[in-house]
Amino acid sequence: MSAAVRGSSGGRTRQGGGRARGKGDGRALGAPRFARVRAGAEGTPLQVDGRPIEAVRESWLIEDRWWTGRPLRRRYWEVLSASGRNLVVFHDLCTGEWFAQGG
Amino acid sequence: MRAAGTAKQATGTPPYAELHCHSAYSFLDGASQPDELADSAAQLGYTALALTDHNSVSGSMELAQIAPTHGLRAIHGAEIDLADGRHITLLVREARGWRNLCRVLTHAHAGTREGPGRERGEPTVALATVLEHAGGLVCLTGCATRGVHDEPTARRLLDAFGPCDLRVELQRPYARRDRARNRALEMLARGLGVECVATGNVHAHARCRAELQDAFVALRHHMTLDASEPLRRPNHSHVMATPAAMAARFAEHPRAVRASVSLAEELSFDLTSELGYSYPGAEDPTSMRRLAELCHARLHERYGLRAARGATAFEEAAARLEEELRIIDELGLAGFFLLHHELLELAREIAAEVRGADSASALLAPGRGRGSSVSSIVCYLTGLSHIDPIANRLLLGRFLHTGLEHLPDIDLDFPRDIREVLIPRIHERYGRERSALVAAFPTFRPRGAIRELGKVLGLPPAEIEHAARAAEHHLAASEHRLGISEDRDGAASSAPAPRGPASDRSPRGPTSDRSRAARSPRWVWLERLVAEAQRLPRHLSQHSGGMVLATRPLIDCCPIVPAAMESRQMVQWDKDSCADAGLLKIDLLGLGMLSAVERCVDLIAQARGERIDLSRIPYDDAETFKAIRRADTVGVFQIESRAQMQSLKRTLPRDLDDLTIQVAIVRPGPIQGGAINPYIERRRRLREDPDYEIPYTHPALKPVLEATLGTVIFQDQVMEVAQAFAGFTTSEAEGLRRAMSRKRSQEALQSHRERFLDGARRHVGADGATALQVWEMVSGFAGFGFPKAHGAAFGLLAYQSTWLRVHYGPELLCALLNEQPMGFYAPDSLIHEAEGRSIPMLPPDVNASAVECTVEEGGVRLGLGYVKGAAVADVRALVAEREHGGSFRSPGELAARCGAARATLERLAWSGACDGIVETAGYGLSGTAEQVTEIDGPSARNARGRAVDTETARTRRRLALWQLGIAAPGRAVARGTQLALPLELPAAPRLRPLSRWQKLLADYASTGVTIGDHVMAALRPRLTAHKLATSAQLARLPQGSAVSVAGLVIARQRPGTAHGTMFLLFEDEWGTINLIVPRAVYERYRPLARAEPLLLAHGRLERTAGETVRAIREVADGDGERVPPVVNVVVRELLALERFVASEDAPVAAQVHRLPTVGAGLRAVAPAVQSFAAGRRR
């Protein structure tokens, strides 16, 4: 897990997350943005921003900063869209919102 | 995921077994106790659970014991740190595997104490060592982050363990690269031709501990939570989940999930039955004969020759001996007793070495038994006990009976010096592989937890400290005090975390008075974490004296790890685990009072030429018992504490039997069982009316509770009541006692309760209410109580030390001062009390003091060793130089001849030890030390009118500081001291004397004690508060008077049994004052009550009438005996005394030194206090 993902750099909007490794400093590009996600029973994303999802590559869970006023609980999904694009989205388990990471 | 499927498995074998699980015995990498894990696992539907703590099996025996009660099978193992930093998981398949695991762990820890200062290092073991010990073990390749994941190493494991006993371990911690890693590992397994197995790497038994685990990781790395992010687990998937959820987690690896179940089934090793341990001597066929011979020989010695005791005593003893030998034979324990005897003989040899064969203390046995073993005549005859069980009517029951399931306990007390030598010597005698100390696990307590976890949460240090100090030390009290309970109630089971901003929650306790802090989620979390951490083991430590011995290498039973102290080693199990394992445990305890008594006997021989054999002193000495009844017992064993003293004046002991009860009565057991007040009241009634009938709760209790007037005071009475009242068998009763004395048996206790109530109805026909009442009496004992035999041993020592106090006061005082720390009172209090009894106390003096305190012309001279900051080597050299080259005549000469560092000289000057040698030419002071206290002048007198402090003396102290400050110290060279020149010092300027207060502070700062003066005596003339009663006046005031008292606090106690009440002990120049601070008052004045050395209290006087003279018929001599009343002040208001002190009338002092205020000055140097925290060492 890259340290930047769960970094302690402050507010949610500035937090990087999920940029693949080896891309140098991910923060500049890594600001998450809202995403429209339709998820299946297990929480698996089926559609992201209208694009159907072909496969799940990996899924991981971040639970951190519970001792602060802004706890962090996110389920990440690295998925492959039907068009062959690699996407990283996460489900904010505190608010129920979905975000897309990067790009 | 964790949340998926919380339903319990319906039927059949669960789809998954947990083979990788950490408990709190992984120390700061595991947040649950083994019993909590077992309980959770059973609830979640597991049928097997492996405990794999880091390099440890400390929790294994606990799991092995508890698991079957949950229908769970315990699997044992450990996660091993390899030398290259990687981890592997080892699981025990069969008995051979357990032996190998223990050996591997012993290797891993062997080098952990090799750093400077024997600091604890990290255990690691070379892979080669593991490979050598592969037999009987199953190896898993280790956890996701640090496991063995490369093929070359895996192949080495394969070669050693074979394909049946190697598994590639798959984990799914919901980290980013899980799937890729597990796919690679599956490939690796295929290449090796071994199976994969899925494990959960559990670190917490329930969701409520998940955060604590995070905090522990930060704590382990000495970091804050914020900073430790890269080291922590990314999420809380380390919480134990259901088997179904775990199977779902590994949906891509169904074979690995199934493999966990099949492997768990294969691992059949049962720790409770397959340890194969026996103690030395167990197999010796001649042991029974040897023991019988030994006992018979001694029987004639002990009972045959004493004509006075008559034939009946001999016959009774002989019959008792036959009975005991029969039981011992039946149980096959002869070797056990011989082994103890052998140890005692070893101690005897050591005693002769340590003390010299002809010292007076050689008459004393080198050790003595305590605990239930004292009740055995075999122990008495073999020297394990010094209490005659026939004369003392001690029943054998608890110690030895045919239903015995565990080895009996024999506790041996030794003087400290002998114990220090004995422990390493036992390692030598029985071999380092066959003997080790027992471990202990210090647990998280509120204060320590607040400090450590507060730091982890990044809270401000000062506020953490404030919260920690405000927290109570006692566990029971803490749950209220921290205000955790209410927070917890609603959230105990499911996810309890305050997810949002926590402003809607209102934490109580340490933070409640600070609203800002209370709003911060970090403070809320501190309370939660502290509550969750309660009672979890913090680290591995050494038990005070328990030792285990074995015939075959102990390292086949339990890993042995080096202890913090040089040449000591311990097993990884605590005393409960050792007992469960059936290991022979001998408690070798160091008892300060035994050392003190020995010193005292030696001092008496030196000072008076009398050789005293404490076993032959009269045990009915009227003066000694009179002192006991008057509670003149400061410094003696056990009956010196505040609570004991108050109780002595009420129980008025007349003989050793009474003392046996007395030492046992002020204990949590009798207190919680409600025994104390009835016992005291019934004794009083009996004194007044010998025909008074004891109201037994039930007639069946009379035979067993007669000696204690119908109350349960001794632990053995618990067993006796269970047998006589509820029809328990001996072993059932023993089971009840064990359940009560152990930490992990609350549930077991409940089952005994049912059995007890039921039995009472059937056995003696008791009605429900009576049965319940008796059960309450008995179960109150779950706290702690003495067995009667232990009471007898301690009562005897209490008597002996009182006897010494009465007849050899200076010697006992001197011995106590030299044996510190021990007992209830700090040296300062011991000295003041002795001065009150007109034992002259002499200040330190470079020309008269030895290193230790000495008896000098009926008084006690403080030793130079008491001078804080003076290097011990310097002081020794000084005394040696004086003995060799004669007295020092001037500071210059002292500095030149003794070669001490300047710091030492300065400390000596501060303490007044150089007052006698200052050069006083031109000051109008006379020259010798002896004259100092005799000089007239503006002297302050202490309460008893003795000149204690003269301006001359105070000038001398100032001069000494000046002169030693400019004197050139000699240089220590290879063969002695090279003199410095010149010896003549230039004249000092005109120096003003220290003020009286400054001198007191200097005394406290330099030696921790004040001699000849008291802070209250010095302050008294300056007090602006009116109508203060002194300790001497209190006893004359009537019940209920409103009083104000002031004093130096010498004890603070807030026992868990007192429901929040605090007890303070004040000392003034006349004596001591007992104060009771009710809970509400305590809470209002908490900071003062807890920390302020000088207090003023307003309150109400409570007193007993004082026993009438004739009440003690048996002992009343001509005039009878006046027993002082018990006087307490019930406090309404507490104030810092410094607010009532007028400024010092010698303004010069303030100009010279800018003195701090009275309170602050004393606070910095106040003597140690008996506190409710840890207490002073006994």
In short:
The complex is a heterodimer of chains A (103) and B (1178). Chain A is mostly beta strands.
> What gross morphology of chain B would you assign?
globular
Number of strands of chain B: 26
Strand line-up of the largest beta sheet of chain A: 1-7-6-5-4-3-2
By secondary-structure content and strand pairing, the structural class of chain A works out as: mainly beta
Please give the largest β-sheet of chain A: 7 strands, antiparallel
Structural class of chain B: alpha/beta
Give structural notes.
The complex is a heterodimer of chains A (103) and B (1178). Chain A has strands at 33-34, 37-39, 45-48, 51-64, 72-81, 86-92, 98-101. With 103 residues, chain A is mainly beta. Chain A is elongated. By secondary structure, chain B is of the alpha/beta class. In chain B, the strands form six sheets. In chain B, strands 7-8-13-10-9-12-11 form a seven-stranded mixed sheet. In chain B, strands 1-2-3-4-5-6 form a six-stranded mixed sheet. In chain B, strands 22-23-24-26-25 form a five-stranded mixed beta barrel. In chain B, strand 11 (560-562) and strand 12 form a beta hairpin. In chain B, helix 10 (287-304) packs across helix 12 and helix 25 (656-665) crosses helix 33. The relative contact order of chain B is 0.06. Chain A binds chain B through residues 1-3, 5-8, 42-43, 57-64, 66-69, 71, 76, 78, 94, and chain B through 1, 4, 174-180, 210-211, 214, 225-227, 229-230, 232, 234-237, 457, 497, 499-502, 521-522, 525.
